[in-house]
């Protein structure tokens, strides 16, 4: 079945550091891929998405590129801020399906 | 702004109780979902509904049921709560087949004692 694997957390970085959170997936066909963010005490918010191979999703300085050949959708940001501290979830939606399949989440903490 | 509202932020219930978690959306979305969030496991789908009175089991439906009598409301029911159902429950909704993303509620943290 469909699955998403994220890098193990927690991840702790200093402010202005470069961020990468790895995400790989298993799915048939061409799924849509998403990154969601959950700030403390809140629900999930859509951060960015990509719906076909080689698409790049971007938002708030975060980027991720849909790589079909490596079945990956790694999240990157060039210079993180304390306010980026949150839990990040990679997810996919297979063609024809309505449900999202989530990775296990990666907790990110940014220190000033 | 679109909104998904979960009726309770925190709930404490006793083992064996029947528990109702309510979710309301104001966006006229066809699809609604109940997920459970546990540390290290991410979000797992319990049930979803693609129309009024229609429902489908997700990945972990055992011990749960759902009700969707009106388009805007999707209820999750724990028939007889158990301690292993202590978790964060997240409701989400989505319009049609397009990938505009899912809108999530703030979650209900349920503790079963």
Description:
The complex is a heterodimer of chains A (112) and B (113). Chain A is an all-beta fold. Helix content of chain A is 0%, strand content 50%. Chain A has no helices and twelve strands. In chain A, the strands form three sheets. In chain A, strands 2, 5, 6, 10, 11 and 12 form a six-stranded mixed beta sheet that branches. In chain A, a hairpin with a 5-residue loop joins strand 5 (32-38) and strand 6 (44-50). Chain B is an all-beta fold and 113 residues long. Chain B is 0% helix and 57% strand. Chain B has no helices and eleven strands. Chain B has strands spanning 4-6, 10-13, 19-25, 31-38, 42-51, 54-57, 64-70, 73-78, 87-94, 103-104, 108-112. In chain B, strands 2, 4, 5, 6, 9, 10 and 11 form a seven-stranded mixed beta sheet that branches. Chain B is globular. The model of chain B has no long low-confidence stretch (mean pLDDT 92). The A-B interface holds A 4, 6, 32, 34, 36, 41-46, 49, 51, 89, 91, 93, 98-105 and B 4, 31, 33, 35, 39-45, 48, 50, 58, 90, 92, 94, 97, 99, 101-102, 104-107.
Uncertain regions of chain A: pLDDT < 50 for 5+ in a row? Answer: none
H and E order of chain B: EEEEEEEEEEE
Principal-axis shape of chain A equals: globular
The most extensive interface between chains reads: A-B, 24 and 25 residues
What is the first-to-last residue Cα distance of chain A? 41 Å
What value does the Rg of chain A take, in angstroms? 13 Å
Low-confidence sequence ranges of chain B: none
Helix content of chain B: under 10%
Class by alpha and beta content of chain A: mainly beta
The largest sheet of chain A is: 6 strands, mixed
Main pleated-sheet profile of chain B: 7 strands, mixed
Average predicted local confidence, pLDDT of chain A? 93
Structural class of chain B: mainly beta
Cα-atom radius of gyration of chain B: 13 Å
Q: Which outline of chain B best applies?
A: globular
